[in-house]
From TrEMBL, chains A, B, C:
The keyword Membrane applies. It is a multi-pass membrane protein. GO terms for molecular function: calcium:proton antiporter activity. Gene3D superfamilies: NCX, central ion-binding region. Residues 26-178, 205-343 form the Sodium/calcium exchanger membrane region domain. PANTHER family: VACUOLAR CALCIUM ION TRANSPORTER. One of its GO terms (cellular component) is endomembrane system. Belongs to the Ca(2+):cation antiporter (CaCA) (TC 2.A.19) family. This is Ca(2+)/H(+) antiporter. It is found in: Endomembrane system. The keyword Transport applies. Ca(+)/H(+) antiporter that extrudes calcium in exchange for external protons. It comes from Domibacillus iocasae.
Length: 350, 350, 350
């Protein structure tokens, strides 16, 4: 399987460059770029896995979330520069839904097919639950509801205030996890991972991770330019592209890693990737984009559309109720996937 | 007590037949039919209890939910045929509220008066919680919110899609509980029930269950025809009749069985009846009715009124927060009953 | 520190009397009264702590909640008499948010700075969670949603009905906690508190508690009269004053006691003060005010503004997800404070 992906990358990256120079048809480019991103994601997954063995599950999960969302942050900044506020909000929504329902769902489902019951740290699950409620149910709902009886200028001020608070809490949360309470809530099983032999050495893994991230960023940008034409051809609305297509392709790296980890029964890492990535999008990427948007002509308030917001809220409650006991199985994964599918139909028809 | 019910059935069924042929006044028929349904429900409860001892608590609970909801499904199909979409949605709402708040509330309360603390499987409670969130908070909320910016045709398509997904997840859930994870999460105490001696043998219990179900279905239909006239006489709105009256009479079987089980401290069965029946209504009866409605001139989208939807959501959150720890007492039952009463006042005044 | 507060009271109470007779400027009075209330609160906190050692944590927490909210009840009745229904609803909202986010947040944060992990009874936490859902998510949401399609007269009838049910459940809850299930769910650690020596004897503590309450009530009333002028001077809206300022000053007593308890690692009492006080406001103070308002020309329905209601709901879900595991740390406290701050910005800008 590794060889197939190597060939896909070796062919896909040059083809992407050639195609974008020679203006190949959008649908062709869409297929090439998607395949290349997925292949690159698999390498990122393997590199992250190697690193995770060296540095431990929490820092490993953090690394993964960071590399997965770096791509998204870069693309969103280009979109904000072009004034595409609605598309950015839609792709943030898609990231939250994609990580919480699709990535977690596939991990739990695929892992559950191999193992009857899979467990992960209950303390981490509850820590993450509280932050999901904080970020989505408080941080996204308050500006939405209050903006209904506010001027645009005040809505933007509220968005800026909330964004600063969220970034502060996100950083405080890292400080909590990695400094003041490092290892306090560690589940016993985690330490045994260290005895495994990583596929790649630390330096090689970092190098591959950086190279693959750069390549993903380049290919992803070409991919984004195909969306409009592909959307027209297949009858997809802008919202559907933002929420579903961008999210699936943009989170391919998380998908690959999380499922790999789940199938190796390393649920602490799989959950950290899925939920941790959601939290990073909601508490760091989204507020940072609000602040960066102030540099551009069209500022972005933290105000989603009602279907976007409601989808995120219901996804949070479902994910929490499923993950709160620190245990998963195939059926819980399927339920998350079904919720993603239901919302997908909704955004498709909208 | 058993003799009183036997007499009520022996008198009630012929009286119902006579009354409907001779067109007795609605209020008289309402009283006769209600009493007969309740008496029949008691027999269904005893038959189910006998069967539950033979086949175990989970299948027993499933049996009970099925026989309770079969009646409802049949009545609803007649209503759909008559184009009464609003009444069907109202009675689905009433079933969810009735099972989640009234049946569970009465069971916890009555059981709690006899026993200080009653426990049931925490794993089942969490499994059910996740499905309640999936069915009501995702499955019912998404079409409601998305339909606000959709054409009627698209709303119906969304409803059909969601219905198919829900039925699939409901069946997958049965497969999970009864096949792949049968007994995996079983609480230790359950097995001891098998030593009890059932009141009726397996065949006799099945016969009584089938006969009583048929009789309930017949009497319930006569009962339904009295609602309009009785409503006018007592000043009840159609919504109140659908949500409250239909739910109380229609779920009398569940009431009887669940309370019986709770008073015998068999909380696993009581909870399975109350919550399991809710799940069956939300994830199976409602979506099946959406699909069946396509055969009739007036199709039924999965779009409740806002008061109906909000009542169901808040009921789900209350029931989950009360049942999540696998323990109940009289006060938790009373709280559920109070929530039912509050919503009852609301629907009465609406 | 005790001496500083003694001097502040000795100076503050006469200054308040002098100032209100001589009509000193509002800002001066605002500073004097606020400082005096805070100093008095510290004495109330110490008196309550002494009593709590004598009577045990649950009754102690109840005492504290009662004395904290007695002040609020008295002020609200004066406001209702003046027809200020909006201000009363805003200050009820502020009490709920203040107790749930600010008092609990400061307790968890300050306590967490001293102790790595603090624990409290999981059973109490879940009992309280269910009641918070009942009071806020059912009791406050239902009249809001149903009133949208109701006449004013029916909305008031619904409010009256819900208020009576809520008071009944509140009293039943006390009966449950103090009579039928007293000690059933007690955490083991609680009993050791009895070995501590209280600062003041029982009678002295009661005397100080009563005197301080009376003084707080007097000073608080003077304080309330300064709000309008201070609001104008600082550009604060009436809603912001009601929700934020009244809540901070009005709950100073709870703040002082809860933080004191948290820093002594008596989390059962700290949580009982914060959450118990919220429950008392939502389930007792609010419905009692609805019933009392019927005596005045302008009756008060239980219908908050949408931002008020949404803030309370999100606060409840955040507080529950943080407190449900019976464990706290500084980061959880900080998250609650951040949510309070976010809502504060919202109400300030509204």
């Amino acid at each position: 399987m590794g060889k197939v992906f190597a060939i896909m990358i070796a062919a896909g990256v040059p083809l992407t460059i050639a195609g974008s120079l020679l203006h190949w048809p959008s649908v062709v480019m869409f297929v090439i770029c998607s395949a290349t991103v997925i292949a690159l994601s698999s390498y990122m997954g393997r590199a992250t896995e190697s690193l995770a063995i060296v540095v431990g599950p929490r820092v490993g999960g953090l690394l993964n979330a960071t590399f997965g969302n770096a791509v998204e942050l870069i693309i969103s900044i280009f979109a904000l520069k072009a004034g595409l506020v609605g598309v950015v909000l839609a792709s943030l929504t898609g990231s939250v839904l994609g990580n919480l329902l699709l990535v977690a769902g596939l991990s739990f489902f695929m892992g559950g097919l191999k193992f009857k019951r899979q467990t992960f740290s209950v303390h981490d699950a509850r820590h993450n639950s509280a932050l999901l409620i904080f970020a989505v149910v408080v941080g996204f709902v308050i500006p939405e509801i209050f903006s209904m009886s506010m001027t645009e200028a005040k809505t933007l001020n509220l968005s800026i205030g909330i964004s600063i608070v969220m970034i502060a809490i996100y950083l405080a949360g890292l400080f909590f996890k990695l400094v003041t309470h490092r290892g306090v809530y560690a589940s016993e099983g985690n330490e045994t991972h260290h005895e495994e032999v990583p596929e790649w050495g630390k330096n090689k893994a970092i190098l591959i991770l950086l190279a693959a991230t750069a390549a993903v960023a380049y290919v992803a940008e070409s991919l984004v330019h195909t969306f409009e034409a592909v959307g027209e051809q297949f009858g997809w609305s802008e919202l559907f592209i933002g929420v579903i297509i961008v999210a699936i392709v943009g989170n391919a790296a998380e998908h690959a890693s999380a499922i790999l980890m789940a199938m190796k029964n390393k649920m602490d890492i799989a959950v950290e990737i899925a939920i941790g990535s959601t939290l990073q999008v909601a508490m760091f990427v989204a507020p940072v984009l609000v602040l960066i948007s102030l540099l551009f002509p069209t500022p972005m308030p933290l105000v989603f559309t009602i279907p976007e917001l409601v989808s995120m809220i219901t996804a949070v409650f479902l994910a929490i109720s499923i993950s709160n006991d620190g245990e998963t199985n195939w059926f819980e994964g399927l339920t998350l996937l079904a919720a993603y599918f239901i919302m997908g139909i909704g955004f498709y028809l909208l």
